[in-house]
Amino acid sequence: MTNFNEERMQPWRVELRNSMKPKDRMEIARVKMPELDPEYRSHTMKEEVNLGLTPEMALMESKRCIDCANPTCVQGCPVAINIPKFIKNIERGEFLEAAKTLKETSVLPAVCGRVCPQEKQCEAQCIHLKTKNEAVAIGHLERFAADYERETGNISIPEIAAPLHKKVAAVGSGPAGLAFAGDMAKMGYEVVLFEALHEIGGVLRYGIPEFRLPNKIVDAEIRNLIAMGVHFVTNCIIGKTITIDDLLAEDYKGIFIGSGAGLPRFMNIKGENLVGIMSSNEYLTRVNLMDAANPESDTPVIKGKKVAVIGGGNTAMDAVRTARRLGAEKAMIVYRRTEQEMPARVEEIKHAKEEGIEFMTLRNPIEYYGDKNGRVTHMLLQVMELGEPDASGRRSPVEVKGKTELVEVDEVIVSVGVSPNPLIPQSVKGLEVTGRGTLVVNEETMQTSIPYIFAGGDIVRGGATVILAMGDGRKAAKGMNEWIRSFT
Amino acid sequence: MNKIVSKEYLSPNVVKFEVEAPLIAKARKAGHFVIVRVGEKGERIPLTIADANTEKGTITLIVQKIGLSTSKLCELNEGDCITDLVGPLGKATHIDNFGTVVCACGGVGTAPMLPIAEAMKKAGNHVITVLAARTKELIILEEQMRKFSDEVIIMTDDGSYGNKGLVTDGVEMVIKRQKVDLCVTIGPAIMMKFVSELTKRYDIPTIASLNTIMVDGTGMCGACRISVGGKTKFVCVDGPEFDAHQVDFDEMLIRLNGYKDIEREQLHKISPNN
Known about the structure:
heterodimer; A: 488 residues; 5-stranded parallel β-sheet; B: alpha/beta; 15 strands; 31% strand
């Protein structure tokens, strides 16, 4: 943390701090991110809802940051971005320097600025909250700096150390694998990243829709990694196409597993296998990865008129907003708790509501009914109420005996969570796995029970966030580097 | 990558491809399948690996033209590349010395049966293959099947070749005359359903290799899910082979038809007359 303070005492920072009183900074209202009109955007598939800040807006917002001596926001960031430094660079007009600062610790700033739940992370620790003000819009500013760098064609490639002539592999090209690959490449390793699907990006590609994270952003970040020397192999399943032993035989010194939690959970209730009922993974993969809404695409997708999405997480919001865009007249969220307990980002819930999504809270499906062709026509919902708080302090839902509702639907998307992908744990002997199917790692180094295998992201955490996965990838890179150097 | 080394028509609508895929050729076992994608707008479809040559680094795929993607694939020629090819996927067939094994296959289902019959024969089983199709022209791979079978019984719906009747008639004929230790069935879902009902009556253990709708083929979506013994299973990772007597074939048939309307529309893309 010492260099944080050193940097803070640099003349330009001091000058900037003195140019305006903290009290005046605190009085500036938080800038609002311009957005597409809800009526318009609920009919357009690929246009991003959030339009980004203009340079003027970003300058104004950056002034709100008082450049604290003890920047608690940094502690709220899983990869500890030097937040005051990048924001103050925006304030002095050095937007490219701001972007560079982000890249010191994050390989995907344009992604994280868009999809991180900042209100639970960096922004939750902002000093403004202590005075009942709105937090500095750190996420918006991060996105601004990263977008500015990309759009002006000034993407800086991090410095790469002299080649070590040592190969390492990453399994899975989601945020964990990308972060790991970026850091290892910086240290001079030859990095090969193996992906089972035909495109790179994991959940950034097949899960998060373009109206929240445009593909061109993901493409740009990947091009950056390629420029850093990272090699990508698609259509290759480690454990099936080639094994971990094959990799060792090819002289890979270490292997990072970032294969995620891609196994969808179903509720195992009656009628759940009717036609028109699918996992959010299937629905979003069809629409995002396979571009099924595009008439030119060969992949079909059901376009329901009355669509129910079961669940209250970000994936549920993505699915229901996608259904709306594909023409659903009635797009519903069915959630067994209340809105307060929803794990989805506040912003996504707000956007969904503006787009006309109906929220049916304290409801839980218990059975589905179909027509003679096996297509779903109705769902039976159990009415719930909140009971006593459980050990974690969360009030658990209990059923209101005898109270049910029958609701018409023609498509149901089940989004009640995911489990770790069992493919790797099953194919590697001696890899320690928890009862939930996640890999056991040393939390400092991310090393598994097999010394040359490191792991991170959802395969270690279960379903979590993009930024936590990235943080794990970075920790694993550090851990693996130290481990490899310890015996060579 | 994934270059087509050879192409051959086995029947008017069935094409045999030999495709470069050295890693898959090395790793595959009987029962495994691959997912292929043709063109940048293409969909992902599952195809069973019918054979492999590790020295040449090739796998054999046998494709029946039934819809948009299979038609696109069948239009490819020697020297062309398949856009994406990933595998081997699924669980390999459980091969053992069971005794007498009846392989009941229909139409293009003969292709995925071929490596299973071969492995069963190598494991010391007495292999009887019942090979069925609507008419003589649609019987494929007879010669290859004879190589791995102690006996081949041909069944055609119209009696244009071999015996007249359905695959079930052929299987029942065998059951009535000798002890059968295991039946393996691959073909259209409706055919597997009837084979399963038949062997259940005679209490003969039966394995069916299921051909459900798939997207990723790696267990991440559940498009291929079916009910086996009342529990939901994913065909791509838990299968594709299951105890046929536990499979809810009626549910599977309904799910297979889930996109029928869209599929019919899609066909217009390649041939407006369809």
